[in-house]
Structures are given as C-alpha cells and as structure tokens.
Design goal:
17 strands; disordered C terminus; single chain; about 15% strand; five-stranded antiparallel beta sheet; about 725 residues
Length: about 725
C-alpha cells in the first residue's frame, strides 16, 4: 500500500469537506434552523393579515425549565469530577489533582458560561460542541510608560518580551537641581566634585509579547462543526473539522507566511449558512461583511483532523491539517497529532449515530398546534365581542356603524330593530381549552417538564400528596437521565482531556489557591497514576430528600452517643457525627464545612489533656515509702559498683606487674595476648555490673517521675539526688 501524498491528502480533505457541508446543508441544518426559530418565537409562516398571529413559546419554556436543573446538578458542588488513584500511595496527590482540574475549568476558563452554552446548544440543536486544547498563542499588548529614570528604562530595555515603539527623553530638572545643590555643598567643604551627566527621564510606548501556556476551552457553534456523516462518535470519525472566519491579520499573528496569507481568497460568505443567519437575523445591520482594509478581510479556515497513511506503514495516522479558502484549498499546516480536541453531548442519544435528538424536536409540533388553537380561539373571541351585523341597504349610515366606540350614535332611517340584525357567532372555548390542556399533557409526557416543577399549577394543593410526589419523581428521573447522559459522554471526555493536556504540557510548577491554601502544583507527577470518574450531583428535590434522611440519621447518632455516656465508641464516634453534618451542609448548597463545624481530628490536637486527679493522703504516704526504698537500693548498687571497680583495678595492676617480671626474667617475647585476654575479661565483668546498675537506676527514675507527676511536679529527667549513675571507667 503506497503512502498518501500531499496532493492526495489535499484531495481527500476537499472531498470530506464537501460531503460534510452537503450533509449539514440537507435536513440537519434545516432542522436546527427550525429549532432556533421556534425557540425565539418567530412567525410560523401561516399568518393571515387581520387575524391573530400569536405564537406559543413551548420550546423556550421547556428548555429554560430543564436548563437550570441541569446546571444546578453540575455546579452546586465544588467538584464536577474526581480523580481516583490507581495505587494506595497515590491518595495524597489525588485530591490535589481533583481540585486542580476543577480549578482549570472554573477559574482559568469561564466554567459556568461554558456549561450554559454547551447544554443549551444540545437541548436546542441536537448536539453541543466544545473545543479543548493547549493554548500557546502569543499575546501582544501595548503599554505606555512615563517619567522613567535611567535604571527603570534599562530594566525595560533588557526585557526580551518588550519592543520599544516610541521613545521620548528629557532632563529631570528636579534631580538636576538637587545634584547641583549637593555639588555646591561639597565644594564649600573643600571636596573635589566631578562632572556627572545630566539625569534623564523617559517616556515610551512599548509592545509586550507574552506566551500563553494553559488549557483553553471554547464553545463551538453547531454550524461550524463538521464531521463524517457516517461517524458514530468523534473518536472513531475519519474526518472532523472546525470551520471559522479569520482575518488576514489574525493569520499573520498566528505565524503563517505573510505572502501566502495575502494571496488567499477573501471569504464569499459561503460559511454563513442559514443557521448563522437565523441566529443573527434580529440585528438591524448585516454583521458579516468584509472590510475594505486588506488586513481585516476575513478568510475561511478549516482546521481538519483526518486519518491518512503518510509514512507508508500501512496504518492511517491522525493528522491535523489546516487549509484556507473555498473550493480550492491552500494547505497552511500538516503534522501528526494524538487526539481530536472536540467533545460532544446530546440529551437524547440515538444508537449508532453521532447526532442525537434535541428536546426542541419533542415540543415543536406541540407549539405549532397550540399556536393554531390559540389563534383560532382569539379570533373567535374577537368576533364574539364584535358581532357582524346584517343591515338593510340604504337604511343605515355605514360610517356610524363601522365607527365602534362607547356612546357612539348610528343613524338609521327606520327603527334599528327593522333595519339592523346582529349575527351571533358560536364560541369555541368549550372545545379549545380541553384541547390546550391535552397539548400541555403531551408536552409533559414527552419532556418530563411538568407544571409542578415549573411552579405554575395553582391547583396542586388540591391533588393528593402521593400523586404529586409520583409526578415529581418521574420528572426528576427524566432530568437525572439527561444529566447522566451528559456526564458519561461530553463532561467525562472534557475533563479527561483537561487532565491529559495538563499532564503533558504543564512542565512548570504552578502555585494556585486550592481549599483556601496556596499549594504548589506540578502535574507531570500525576502521569499514569489516576483514573477519571464523574461525580454527578442530584437535583434539588433529591437533595431535599437527602437532607431529611441525613437529619434522621443525625438524630439517631446523637441518641446512640448519649447512650454511650457522651463518649466515643462502640457504636458512634464524633467523626461519624461530623460526616453527617458535613453532608447536610454540602446538600444545602453551602461550602467550606469548616466555617460551621470543626473536624474532630483537628479538634483533638487543639484540646489540652485534663490534669490527673489529686492523690489521697494514703496514696501520698505509699508513694513516699516507694521513693525512699528505691533511693536505698540505688545507694547499695553504687557501693557495690565502687567495690567492683576497686577490685578490678587491683587485678589489672597485678597483671601488668607480672608481665613486666616475665619479660625481665626470660628477656624474651612472651605471649602477651593471653594476659590481655585476661584483662579484657575483667573489663567485661565490670561492664556487666555497670549494666545492672544502670537498669536499676532507670527503673528507679521511672518511679521517681511518676511520684513527681502525682505531686504536681514536672519531671526533671534526672535521678534523685545522690543517685547519679556512675560512669564506666
């Protein structure tokens, strides 16, 4: 199998882009545009002049009811995700990794805003798309400095990230006067004064270029995302692309060759499909027009991720290929990559398909029928309040009749009853209102959004508590199912990507505030140590149930604690009670449990132990007797040790004398090793005796310390007076 050449790759990309755009331009784009129109309450296209044109807002009401519940599920807790360690020794860093990736999502990026747009796109337009990548783009800022002295100006010049654009220098008159005064004073004292250059000040305008280096998350409008039409997911797709409009200036700043960029064709607004036009159609002026300035003219850019065998190994590798233009594409980048930086979620997944179904699709026909019924009902009410009248031609003044106003006069040539006959219209309210009620029931059945969780049903108090609770539980199950689908698909993929990018690219230590503490973080230490799992919170109703259940558990714990005599164990500890209180605070939506309760583990360290109970008179006498007995034993040991030392000293002295006598007597070398061995044996005997003495002294010291504590005296760490251990000689 021959490898794919660059020309063939260009042809593959051209074909895939056309197929993806054609797929979107068919029913997919039309369906999403229709959902946008229904959400914004646009006209249905069936309006008649002079008749009611009211539009029901069922799509918007349903989405705006589901969205807050979903956002509360994922944002009520400090942690959207949790890192689980693979090994037991990795547990200490697991919490740090958990807090840091949540910090990246919420602080480095606008986490709430990203979730809001992401979820709303999914609920409204089938699939929501986000892009997550490591951003190392340059950031160019213009700064102005005034009245810099020489030292400050030199520091600015030595900064490699700074380029001087404009500079103005002038003499610092105040400093010049001060220097002159000092020179005059020095000359008056007879000192030699050297000429110094005039002090200068600088005004300058600089261009500062700073490099990025962080995980960046962006919402992608659905019409900008292209994917192979037969793909089941982003990971198994052979082609994925992000199409955007970039100015020539943006492309040059991104590092592309200026000559190539200036020769690229200007966008003909082909990218502005019907969806994007629908999204911005309420703007008076067309927002997408090319500027006359060449630098600000917009170019169509396609950031493509395609699988192709470019190294002739028989395996199609993933490559990032950036092309520009329309129809005829110019390749700007082409290099291998290891992942596709997009994450998708949908509320109603369809098996074996990438695109699911939106909540909007479930409600659009209901909104259409309700709008029709409401229009007819209103027209009927208008007609009933303003009945048609049959008149005798020529007998009634038509101008007076057509001018309907309170107290108005209608001129007739005959009595009104003879020349005017009201034509009664039949009301349809008896049929219309049950139909509207039925349509609301259909919407509730399809979406799980009921009038109870919307807070709209005034008659809910008249329903049985069991029935209302069953309806609420069913609704919550639908919400939790959508939340679980979001969590196990898009959310999980997003945070896994954040984790992988951080471990791969953040090679420098970073100090961030986690759990009210500034902690150094180095993600390179986390590689191959953690799995990512999603912790999905529960809805408000479930949280209220959890709080009730936790309160019952806490009540039982307190009862058991009282039965234990307000002491820990065997059934309940203070830690168990603290855990229940912490969960109650967490479910109540409050943060920082330490603001309300102290962890018992920390509290034990803060509390000093109580003093020992006072001694009775009998105990004091007994301890005095024990102390005296120990002192007597130590004194006896001292005397015995002194005797042993004296005896052994005499033995050593005799051995040395005998050795000298033998050497003198025989005038020859004798085996002195035996004599030395005898001397060493005597030393060992002395050491053993000393060991026994020290052991006895240690036991006596322990008793003495106990006695001192019982009398309220601190331990001195020494043996009683006259019982100091004797050092071994």
């Amino acid at each position: 199998m021959a490898k794919v050449t660059e020309l063939e790759l260009k042809g593959i990309i051209h074909s895939e882009i056309n197929n993806a755009i054609g797929f979107m331009g068919s029913n997919l784009s039309a369906q999403r545009r229709k959902s946008l129109e229904y959400y914004m309450g646009d006209k249905l296209g069936t309006e008649i002049d002079g008749r009611s044109q009211v539009v029901s807002t069922d799509v918007a009401d349903t989405i705006e009811t589901i969205l807050p519940n979903l956002l509360r599920i994922f944002t009520s807790s400090d942690q959207v995700v949790r890192c689980e360690p693979v090994k037991s020794e990795d547990v200490p860093l697991a919490d740090q990794a958990t807090n840091y990736i949540n910090y990246i999502f919420n602080k480095d990026n606008a986490g709430f805003s990203i979730l809001y747009t992401w979820f709303k796109d999914a609920l409204l337009e089938k699939n929501g798309i986000v892009k997550v990548f490591w951003d190392e783009s340059q950031k160019v800022e213009q700064e102005t400095y005034q009245n810099l002295n020489e030292q400050e100006y030199q520091i600015l010049l030595n900064d490699e990230s700074v380029e001087i654009i404009e500079k103005e220098s002038f003499v610092d008159e105040k400093m010049k006067e001060a220097m002159a005064a000092l020179a005059a004073e020095a000359e008056a004292q007879g000192q030699l004064v050297e000429d110094e250059p005039e002090p200068m000040l600088y005004n300058c305008v600089v261009k500062r270029t700073s490099m990025g280096g962080k995980v960046k998350i962006e919402n992608v409008p659905p019409e900008e995302f292209l994917i192979q039409k037969t793909a089941k997911s982003i990971e198994d797709a052979s082609f994925v692309a992000h199409r955007v409009l970039k100015t020539r200036s943006d492309l040059i700043e991104m590092g592309y060759d200026r000559e190539v960029v200036e020769n690229l064709p200007t966008s003909n607004n082909a990218i502005l499909n019907s969806e994007r036009i629908t999204r911005y159609k309420d703007i008076d002026q067309a927002p997408f027009t090319n500027a006359p300035d060449n630098a600000t003219q917009e170019i169509e850019i396609y950031e493509c991720y395609v699988r192709a065998d470019m190294d002739d190994d028989g395996v199609a590798e993933l490559r990032k290929v950036c092309v520009a233009g329309s129809g005829s594409y110019e390749v700007l980048e082409n290099y291998p990559c290891d992942h596709i930086p997009f994450c998708s979620l949908t509320p109603i997944p369809m098996p074996h398909r990438f695109y699911g179904r939106s909540v909007s699709e479930l409600v659009e026909d209901v909104q259409l029928v309700k709008s029709t019924v409401m229009r007819q009902l209103l027209d009927n009410m208008y007609l009933t309040n303003n009945n048609r009248v049959a008149i005798m031609d020529g007998m009634v003044n038509l101008d007076d009749l057509l001018t309907s106003r309170p107290g108005g006069v209608v001129r007739t040539k005959q009595p009104p009853s003879q020349v005017m006959l009201p034509m009664q219209s039949q009301t349809i309210s008896q049929q219309a209102f049950p139909l509207l009620e039925y349509l609301d029931t259909v919407r509730e059945t399809r979406t799980g959004v009921t009038r109870y969780n919307q807070g709209l049903d005034a008659d809910s108090l008249n329903k049985t508590a069991t029935g209302v609770n069953a309806i609420m539980t069913q609704s919550q199950m639908r919400m939790e199912l959508i939340a679980r689908v979001f969590a196990e698909t898009g959310i999980k993929d997003l945070f896994r990507r954040i984790f992988e990018l951080t471990c791969k690219y953040q090679d420098k230590e970073r100090i961030v505030e986690l759990n009210n503490q500034f902690i150094p973080v180095k993600p390179t230490e986390w590689r191959n140590k953690y799995n990512i799992s999603i912790v999905v919170g529960l809805g408000s109703g479930s949280k209220e149930q959890q709080i009730l259940m936790l309160n019952n558990i806490l009540e039982r714990q307190l009862q058991a604690f009282q039965l234990q005599g307000n002491r820990e164990y065997p059934m309940v500890s203070l830690k168990n009670i603290y855990n229940s209180l912490a969960k109650i605070i967490e479910n109540a939506g409050l943060k920082n449990v330490e603001n309300y309760f102290v962890n018992p583990d920390m509290g034990k360290e803060m509390v000093t132990p109580p003093p020992p109970p006072p001694l009775t008179p009998i105990e004091k006498i007994e301890f005095k007797r024990i102390a005296s007995e120990e002192q007597r034993k130590i004194a006896e040991l001292e005397l015995e040790l002194k005797k042993i030392k004296s005896d052994n000293a005499e033995i050593l002295y005799d051995n040395e004398i005998k050795l000298k006598e033998l050497e003198l007597k025989y005038n020859a070398q004798i085996d002195s090793q035996q004599i030395k061995a005898d001397a060493d044996l005597n030393k060992m005997l002395i050491a053993e005796s000393t060991k026994d003495f020290r052991q006895a002294a240690k036991e006596s010291q322990a008793v003495q310390d106990q006695v001192s504590k019982l009398y309220g005296q601190g331990s001195t760490g020494k043996t009683p007076t006259g019982t100091e251990p004797v050092e071994q000689s």
